[in-house]
Write a structure and sequence with these properties.
Blueprint: E1 2-11, E2 15-23, E3 29-37, E4 40-47, E5 50-58, E6 63-67, E7 70-71, H1 81-93, E8 95-107, E9 116-127, E10 140-145, H2 146-154, H3 161-173
Parallel strand pairs: 4-9
Antiparallel strand pairs: 1-2, 2-3, 4-5, 4-7, 5-6, 5-10, 8-9
Length: 174
């Protein structure tokens, strides 16, 4: 498939949406919508046979959601993937990690968007102050034993797909 033209249809500080005219290998044509978002980091803060989770209201879902800490650099900032992981961990939970292990790199939704993310395991945790953004003011942090985490997944209380994909990378690394 090749792109024959592309046009921006929407932009705000967090996303850009473009529409690509495409020609497939068989000569047929079509339109493809693509959402462009900055890559993000996701951190699994682990200790004492459990994990530190964050919960916040997610506007698109219209409800609160449990997740592993995750996020992107603020607009106009950039840096190494491990630095982003450390920044997100500290910002959302107040935790600092003595050790950070890269578990993998994943595509969020390759049929729809360009966004990718790195997954990190944070260990040797010490507590500090959070530095949450305005949009994270309602965020909660909780330590959850892994057995309870698995129960949350099974009964639908934990549904964040990037976090679940990250957890699968953790399981594969064990």
């Amino acid at each position: 498939m090749r792109t024959t033209s592309s046009r921006e249809v929407y932009r705000n500080p967090w996303i850009r949406v473009r529409e690509d005219a495409v020609e497939r290998d068989d000569g047929s044509t079509g339109v493809y919508g693509v959402v462009e978002r900055a890559h993000f980091g996701l951190v699994i803060p682990a200790e004492r046979d459990g994990f530190w989770l964050v919960e916040q209201f997610r506007h698109p879902l219209g409800r609160r959601s449990w997740e592993f800490p995750q996020g992107t650099w603020p607009a106009g900032h950039d840096g190494a993937a491990d630095a982003l992981a450390r920044a997100e961990l500290a910002e959302e939970t107040g935790l600092r990690a003595a050790a950070l292990h890269h578990l993998g790199h994943l595509d969020l939704a390759p049929g729809l968007m360009t966004q990718e993310f790195d997954v990190w395991l944070a260990e040797g945790l010490t507590q500090g102050e959070t530095a949450r953004e305005e949009s994270e003011a309602d965020m909660r942090t909780a330590f959850v034993p892994e057995t309870e985490f698995r129960a949350m997944v099974r009964d639908g209380r934990f549904t964040d797909s990037p976090s679940l994909a990250a957890y699968s990378l953790l399981l594969l690394s064990r």
